[in-house]
Input
Amino acid sequence: MPTPLGKELNGNLTVLREMFGNSMDLYTKPLHIHGVECAACMFDGISSVERLWVILLDLLSRPDTPAANGEALFQRVLHRSDLPLEKDPVEDFETLSSKLTAGMTVLLFDGCACGVALSSQNMQFRSVQEPTGEGDIRGSREGFTDLLRINLSLIRRLDRSEGLTIEFFQLQTRTRTEAALCYDRDLAPPELVELARQRLNECRLPLVLDSSYLAPCLQAGRGRFFSQVGYTERSATACAKICEGKIIVLVNGSPFALILPYFFGEHFQSLDDYAQKAYFASFVRALKHLAFWLAVLLPGMYVCVANYMPELFPRQLLFKITAAESATPWPLFLEMVLVILLLEIVREAGLRLPKPMGHSVSLVSALIIGDAAVGASIISTPVVIVAALTSLAMFVLPSLYEPITLLRILFTLAAGLLGPLGLCLLLMWMLTSICGADSFGFPYAAPFSPWQRGALRDGLMRWPWPDLAKGPFTVRDMKKEADREE
Output
């Protein structure tokens, strides 16, 4: 039960200071307005003192008759003034704390158990810039920033329809982080919205500093190898997903928006697909699918064929591979795993260090360590070529980087220890995990499994815009088509 405000001003200020441990950034300024003792409360840094005084200048300089008491002044300020106020009064300390930490100024009155919240936010934030993690040739250059209100304004500016709905949530965490649910109420299935709302309300975490903290709470089940929650930094991508009937979740302090639901085939799509010619976009998607299977299967298949079925190699290539492997001291599958791990160490070192040092690490590892290891016959040249090729293929699909990294190691170990049987069993497990997963009531492999008309229309291929425009596609249409097939 929230603690209500008292009528004594000094008592309220004492409780407020005790709540925040006499924090130095808590600013409380005594005021004398129309014969009543008042106090302006705010946090320095997220609320502007200069803006507060500009707001109060009209109230302080107006020659109104003195108020009889604090209650009368409160009614006058709330209902008969032009100040930028919140319409709901502040009646308890929980609301008071929420308003202050949101960057507002709360005006308290002596003799009144209510206060008013003034809009004096002045939070510093990173400006709207081009996203660094989603490269596109054409399209908008605007990316989400760290402030929730700015991100919502970017979506609202692109989607001006009346159906766009934004719901605010204050997550049940120690940090009381704000989150927003964005969807089109005319396109998003009501059961999808209710499920997302329910999972957000049930999320119990000690703190939330990024939107990725919520991903395990939003997707069904635990230990999922492929995530059923997507990410985007681009406001244009978020708007496109809303127009497909999906839900966007934004978290204050994070430039990454969550996409609900998210299907496996969407990892192979990008904004450029819809800005290029249809035939070229289809060709690029086919390349991405090829890159995925190369990144996952190529190391394991190389180890499997070299160890168990060498007759499949051409004769000249087989002689070179045999000569290279006979000079190294490691088993082939262990050698492949070591090279993959070395590449991951190099990537992690280049990612975490400052950019000038990161480039130096990459050059040193590639030119010196790699060349020296091959020259000393510690690792063979074919293994380095295969590992480098799979790394390049993996960079084509950055959203699948995490599962691909572990899958290629697992396929290499399975092929080296169990041969073709291990390779086939692991492949069946991976396909089963993809086709059997559920993303907010929708098949994760949709529209490929079960097969739907969208698999060719905007899945494996991308039809020209005149054909796409003939029939709008939303997840609600996907649900109806699946129900008809059943």
